[in-house]
Amino acid sequence: MGKKLRKEALIFTGLLVIVAFTVHFQAWIDHPLEHIKRLPESPFGIWHPLLFTFVIYLLLWGIRLIVNVSRKFFAR
To answer: Do 11 and 22 touch, CB atoms closer than 8 A?
Structure first.
């Protein structure tokens, strides 16, 4: 795996953990295994943590892209 891909995978994984703990903090503290087991019963579906994280990741990626392009533009 290339350095860039590894970095992006680490960002995505970190974001997934941060979002999961932020949104469901009390469930992770009180009953973490039960919380994971009940994932298929979620009204958003079993894949919703990955889907929601991916949407947030895309938004952050877009912001990072704009910042990097503007840095290069103004560095000239």
So the answer is: no
Do residues 50 and 16 touch, judged by C-beta distance below 8 A?
yes
Q: What confidence tens digit (pLDDT) does each residue in 27-46 have?
A: 999 999 999 999 999 999 99
State the Cα–Cα distance between residues 17 and 30, nearest whole angstrom.
17
Residue 53: Cβ within 10 Å count: 19
Tokens of 28: 């992770």
Q: Reduced to 3 states, what is the DSSP secondary structure of residue 2?
A: coil
Across the chain, mean pLDDT equals 94
Q: What is d(CA 12, CA 7) in angstroms, rounded to the nearest whole number?
A: 9
The sign of the torsion formed by the CA atoms of 10, 69, 60, 57 equals negative
Name the pTM for this structure. Answer: 0.83
Which pLDDT does position 40 carry in this prediction? 93
